[in-house]
Amino acid sequence: MSKLSDIFSDLYSKFSDQLPAILIALVIIIIGFLIARGLKNLILKKIKPRLTNTLSADFIAQVTSIIIRAIVIIIALNLMGFKNFTSQILAGAGILTFVLGFAFKDIGENFLAGIILAFKSPFRLKDLIESGNVLGYVQELNLRETLVKTPDGKDVFIPNGQILKNPLINYTIDGFLRYEFIIGLDYNSNIAEGIKIISDSIFEISDVLNTKNKKTAVLIEELTASTINFKILFWIDTFKSTSRTYHNNIRSAVIDKVVQNLMQKGFYLPSTIIEVKKYKL
């Protein structure tokens, strides 16, 4: 019993000796973490509005906060008497990095890819992108993955390494997107008049662009069994809205206007003709 009492007495004595250092370390951790949070918020408020790509500011803020917190923890451990421990951590960082490089290859790859994407990103916040089989709007760039929200409301976390290694389609980065559809006219139709009606109908929709480099086109696509098929191509401004629903509504409005005007002018839009023969047995 006396031995147990001596052990507790010794522990209490050591704790009492280390108590001031522990309290100072806790204060440093609290202050350090508050500084990290404040600096992160400062970067987001001051630097983010000045950058073209706000994702870079988000990434820098995250990395800065993590580095400051790591430094604060190492300082606190030193004050608490773990100097040898922290020295061993720093000395073994090279070996640890080498070992972890094999153990967590994908995590390291995604982290490095995140740094590259933060400073040379092929997309911005709210851009509509497609990577692999995922189509959606960029919501956030983190250290490991990029958050994308699909048009049907699903949140997809794409590893940064996958985005960097695979082809990526950005539908909205330059502000222009081309849509197209096919419409078929009867062989007895006046082709030239039909093309004019289609072109005029498209321009009745105000959201369709008509500039020097973004012109509407009405082309004969193919000759089928019952129709002459036309491919209609037109451009919209994605800076007004990156919403896929907004784009599809414009496309629907154009198709509806073209069909209405053609039918009002007496054009026949035939369906596929199926010939059925009846044989006597």
What features would you highlight for this structure?
281 residues, alpha+beta, Helix Hairpins, SH3 type barrels, Alpha-Beta Plaits, 3 domains, five-stranded antiparallel beta sheet, three-stranded antiparallel beta sheet, 52% helix
Kindly identify the CATH topology of the largest domain.
Answer: Helix Hairpins
Order of helices and strands: HHHHHEEEEHEEHEEH
Q: How many domains comprise the coordinates? A: 3
Give the second-level CATH assignment, the architecture of the largest domain.
Orthogonal Bundle
- Estimate the mean pLDDT confidence: 79
* Rg estimate, integer Å: 32 Å
The separation of the N and C termini measures 112 Å
Query: What's the count of strands?
Result: 8
Name the overall outline: elongated
Structural class by secondary-structure content: alpha+beta
How many individual helices? 8
Largest sheet: 5 strands, antiparallel
Enumerate the spans where pLDDT stays under 50 for 5 or more consecutive residues. none
- Share in helix: 40-55%
> What is the CATH C level class of the largest domain, in words?
Mainly Alpha
Strand content: 15-25%
